[in-house]
Design goal:
Layout: E1 5-13, E2 16-21, E3 24-30, H1 32-41, E4 47-51, H2 54-57, H3 63-70, E5 77-80, H4 86-94, E6 99-102, H5 104-108, H6 112-121, E7 126-135, E8 139-144, E9 149-150, H7 155-165, E10 169-174, H8 186-193, E11 200-203, H9 209-217, E12 223-226, H10 228-231, E13 232-233, E14 238-239, H11 245-248
Parallel strand pairs: 1-4, 1-12, 4-5, 5-6, 6-7, 7-10, 10-11, 11-12
Antiparallel strand pairs: 1-2, 2-3, 7-8, 8-9, 13-14
């Protein structure tokens, strides 16, 4: 049975992994190298690693740490956070990263970094990311720098611009659903999926296998990413890395 990609999404702060709720209240969940080693042993499809402070603090990626983490990956890894130049993209690719995830540089600057990266490494290596909040009066608002900066960008226009510039995939994250484990924003995912002709990865809100399946079958996502679901266990949110490919086969079922 075909199963869409199910991707652990790990948040990097300094040299440790954290998990947030609505992009705030970060809780330490462990050492990134050990965590990646465990996900590799559990045969995760792919991995997303996001440095949640790099763009906000105006600094570049921690290349040495990314290289160390990528060295433990037996699956493709995507990295995002602080990527603003083609030179940085090249260094990340040389470090073992298969996909470079770009958000704030495109949202607050220009699409040049997307175009340059795609021209150098192919669209399959470039992911355009959007962090979205929902406002009662204004609808969906695109944010940047770990949701600390609001933009005036229009959702559909921006994701189409990312793809036109060369992004081969879109990662869409609902800030208000992040870490809540109460389900994806299916309306948001559907709006993005209907706007572009590249794979859309849904992120923000996964708490059950049913939620993952909904994002695929109702939201139109091509893949799903989750954090809390794969690092916490039980109502007390005990830290326990878990990823079971056999159980996740249900994501592809109807």
């Amino acid at each position: 049975m075909y199963r869409p990609r199910v991707i652990p999404c790990l948040l990097l702060r300094g040299h440790g992994l954290v998990k947030t709720r609505r992009f705030k209240d970060a809780v330490y969940v462990g050492d990134p190298v050990n965590a990646v080693r465990i996900f590799s042993e559990k045969e995760a499809d792919e991995l997303v690693l996001l440095d949640i402070d790099a763009s906000k603090e105006g600094r570049e990626p921690n290349f040495e740490l990314v290289e160390e983490i990528a060295g433990e990956c037996l699956m493709p890894i995507g990295y995002g956070g602080g990527v603003t130049t083609l030179a940085q993209v090249k260094r990340l690719i040389r470090s073992g990263v298969e996909k470079v995830i770009i958000n704030s540089a495109a949202a607050l600057g220009s699409m040049a970094i997307i175009s340059e990266a795609a021209a150098s490494f192919g669209s399959q290596a470039v992911v355009g990311a959007v962090d979205v909040r929902q406002s009662f009066m204004k609808g969906y608002r695109l944010t940047a720098k770990s949701a600390t900066v609001d933009t005036s960008l229009k959702l559909e226009d921006h994701v189409r611009a990312l793809v036109d510039a060369g992004a081969g995939e879109i990662l869409v994250n609902n800030v208000d659903a992040d870490g809540m484990m109460s389900g994806f924003d299916l309306k948001l995912i559907r709006r993005v999926a209907d706007s572009v002709d590249v794979p859309v990865v849904a992120c923000g809100g996964a708490g059950t296998i049913g939620h993952l399946a909904e994002a695929i079958h109702e939201g139109g996502a091509s893949a799903v990413a989750a954090g809390s679901m794969f690092v916490f266990h039980g109502k007390h949110r005990a830290v326990l890395i878990n990823y079971n490919p056999a159980e996740l086969a249900a994501v592809g079922g109807h």
